[in-house]
Amino acid sequence: MGPWWFIFLQPYYKEQDLLLCPMATKPYQEGGWAPFAAWRTSEGDSGSYGANGYIINTPPGMDFQLGRPTEGNWRTTDVKGAANIPVLLDALWVNGWPEHYDQPAEFEDWWMDEIGANEMRRFCANRHNGCVNGVFVDFSIRKIELKQLWRLKWSRGYNVNADPPIWPDWMRKFKDY
């Protein structure tokens, strides 16, 4: 699989630990447990941040990327509402393509899903007291409350005003958006 997003950044960092949230440094394969676990690719790279898959600027004529339509991809940083478009966040996997109809995980310690289903779960990790940290297209960095993830503009076609999902017990205490 790959090339992964972090491969393109390797010329700009020296320490692999830069890919690890201090709260999630041990991969699942070494006994890490969600939501405080890092991911590990089949190539052996580890991290605990994930990229919004819709940020990818696929080549013209490429209608699908990893089996997903590319029509919703941003392809540029020169877009209206850049402060609400996530690029990189705390995550349980290296990337994800969230949809407004995705359902949160039933349990707080959930890890991984089937590809192409409920990929918001990859970013909905309670690592920071009901929040994750994220970088946005306008290059701002901020804390994002878990329920707020469903109000971010992940793709061009993402409906930020959709009805929220039915929150599982572990998320009900968090602020609604």
UniProtKB/TrEMBL annotation:
The protein's name in its UniProt record: Uncharacterized protein
Organism: marine sediment metagenome
